[in-house]
Write a structure and sequence with these properties.
46% helix; 4 strands; two-stranded antiparallel ribbon; 2 helices; alpha+beta; 17% strand; two-stranded antiparallel sheet
């Protein structure tokens, strides 16, 4: 493991958690998006993480892919809604706001933890450089 691998590994964690936060914020923004019953509902976006060089302890993480929720959504009876069909139904995304908020908190904590590692490694390397000046 090279001396500055800490920055690369933590940087990959920062990037992954930022992508996760982007996906969750998009989901939260669209949790109440209404569609016609003959259209697809907004699909929840989920980021799937993958270790780089799994098992070696090196390489960090990356976003392997994005998965999407059910386009069928959930049917809600709302006869007064302008998008309601002839039976009075509209389609909402099949997402739970509480679950999305939990996902957001986990992504924020992961981002903060990786940022703390970068800050501490920076301070450690600066302190080591100061020792060499003496």
């Amino acid at each position: 493991m090279a001396i500055f691998d800490t920055f690369g590994i933590s940087g990959s964690g920062l990037l992954l958690h930022r992508k996760w936060l982007d996906a969750v914020s998009d989901n939260i923004a669209n949790v109440n998006t209404v569609s016609r019953t003959n259209e697809d509902a907004f699909q929840e976006r989920m980021i799937i993480a993958r270790a780089v060089d799994y098992g070696t302890g090196e390489g960090g993480v990356r976003a392997a892919r994005a998965e999407f929720g059910d386009p069928e959504g959930r049917m809600v009876y709302a006869p007064d809604h302008p998008l309601a069909d002839e039976e009075g139904y509209v389609k909402y995304p099949d997402m739970d706001l509480g679950d999305q908020m939990s996902q957001m908190i986990m992504a924020q904590r992961g981002y903060q933890a990786n940022l703390a590692v970068v800050e501490r490694a920076t301070a450690l390397y600066q302190a080591a450089l100061q020792l060499g000046k003496g």
